[in-house]
Amino acid sequence: MDEEIRSEIKEQTKTLLLDSQLNYLAERLFETGKRVDAMLTAWLTFTALTLLLCFGVINAVSIGGLQLRAMVAASVTFGLTCAYYYRLALGVTALSFWREALREKRRERFDILIQLAKKEGTESEEKTTNEIISFIGEYPGYIACSVLIKNEARKTKEASGIVISIVHYAIIYAYSLSPYMLGFTLIHRSQYSPTQIVIAVLGLIICLSANLILRLEPETT
After folding, report:
1. What is the pLDDT of residue 104?
2. pLDDT in tens, 170-214
3. Is residue 70 part of a domain?
4. CA distances from 139 to 21, 31, 40 (A)
5. Cα–Cα distance measured from residue 200 to residue 76, given in angstroms and rounded to the nearest whole number
6. Is 6 among the domain residues?
7. pTM of the predicted model, to two decimals?
8. What single DSSP character describes residue 158?
């Protein structure tokens, strides 16, 4: 009898702990997605400013009463672009880890349901598992929406679905290559100034590190 009581207490405690962990992970996933969306907007803004300054659309920028010439201001905005690019890579990678951790905890929380479905066959087990780990509440920003639309598009065999998938991956590649193109633009427009070359190289090293971070993948089970 005592053994049954201890076993029941242990199961209840495990359930409460898993529920607490699920709530924590869900909050982290939502908050991180919200910050990533804000960082993406900031990155796009500084990228656009750098291009406008490099091509002379904006001749000067005033920061705190200090007037900066176009190329000097472009160097500043390029540095900010690289910083946000790195921070964005950290955020996107964190989203992947939070998302997979949340899925794993859901599997643990509803393991009994999965085991019951397993007795009915592989197809039933896969369907039940997919239902358990699907429909994770994320911040409805660009990252979450674009991935959702891409996944839905891949399920269809229509031409529109193929086009959406191609555009999705094209944007990702454009994002990955954009710092290098921007760095070259900065160097070229400054007429290969040694100072600008150093700034561009340092910025691109940061962006290269960010690209390596983006390749990190959470372990899936």
Report:
1. 93
2. 998 898 899 999 999 999 988 898 999 999 999 999 999 999 998
3. yes
4. 19, 7, 14
5. 11
6. no
7. 0.85
8. S
In sequence order, the β-bridge partners of residue 200 are: none
Given a cut of 80, is residue 64 above it in pLDDT? no
Encoding tokens for residue 161? 């679905």
The CA angle 41-58-53, to the nearest 5 degrees, is 65
Establish if 5 belongs to a structural domain: no
pLDDT, one tens digit per residue, over 144-164 is: 888 888 888 888 878 888 898
Which uninterrupted H or E stretch holds 56?
Answer: none
DSSP label of 141: S
Neighbouring CB atoms inside 10 A of 130's CB total 10
The C-alpha atoms of residue 155 and residue 175 are separated, in whole angstroms, by 25
Number of structural domains found in the chain: 1
Q: List Cα–Cα distances, 67 to 59, 63, 70, 195, in angstroms.
A: 10, 7, 10, 19
Which tens digits make up the pLDDT trace of 96-117? 999 999 999 999 999 888 888 8
Q: Which residues does 103 contact at the CB level (< 8 Å), separation at least 6?
A: 133, 136
| CB contact at 8 A, 215 and 92 | no
The boundaries of the domain holding residue 179 are 11-214
Q: Which amino acid is at 204?
A: L
Closest C-alpha among 216, 170, 186 to residue 82 = 186
How long is the chain? 221
Residue 193 belongs to a domain: yes
Q: Would you state the structure tokens that stand for residue 126, as one six-digit string?
A: 């896969």
Round to whole Å and give the CA distance between 119 and 99: 28
